Amino acid sequence: MKLIVVEEHKSNYPIPIIFKKKERVKVGKKDPAFEDWIWVTTKDENQGWAPMGWLHFETGDKALATQDYTAQELEPGFGDELFLHYELNGWGWVEKEDGSCGWVPMKTTKIAAPTASQGPLVPRGL
């Protein structure tokens, strides 16, 4: 699905967390602004938000990743076109025309109306 950016987004996390499937992370507080996101600390001590649905919670403050994840956010400008790969808990994993991928808040975008002069934005692999 093609999206248009209607509000610029700037990331608060310039060094995104990354973890792999079956990797253990430390979990903390839930995000008060976005449902089903939780604060995690990765094995390299980096911290950031991760989707709760991608973690298997163990005892205490430990969880096991159920799939690979990166918290990489894009910082698109007003009017930029994005291709939505999927939406999760108020955020979309998107791709810019230059091939860069990352998360953006869905509230900063709207569905693009197709026009005859525009060709499709073809998705590239993640």
Main sheet properties: 5 strands, antiparallel
Number of helices: 0
* Fold-level CATH name of the largest domain: SH3 type barrels
Helix content: under 10%
Radius of gyration: 16 Å
Oligomer: single chain
CATH architecture grouping of the largest domain: Roll
Beta strand count: 12
In terms of per-residue confidence, which ranges show pLDDT below 50 for 5 or more consecutive residues? none
Mean pLDDT: 91
H and E order: EEEEEEEEEEEE
**Structurally, how many domains make up the residues?**
2
Morphology: elongated
Q: Which structural class is indicated by helix and strand composition?
A: mainly beta
Beta-strand percent range: 35-45%
Detailed description of the structure:
With 126 residues, this protein is mostly beta strands. It folds into 2 domains: 2-11 and 74-111, SH3 type barrels, CATH 2.30.30; 18-70, Roll (SH3 type barrels). The protein has no helices and 12 strands. The chain has strands spanning 2-5, 18-19, 24-30, 37-41, 47-51, 55-57, 62-65, 69-70, 81-88, 91-96, 101-105, 109-111. It has a 5-stranded antiparallel sheet, with no helix packed on it. A 5-stranded antiparallel sheet has the order 5-4-3-7-6, with no helix packed on it. The radius of gyration is 16 Å and the shape is elongated.
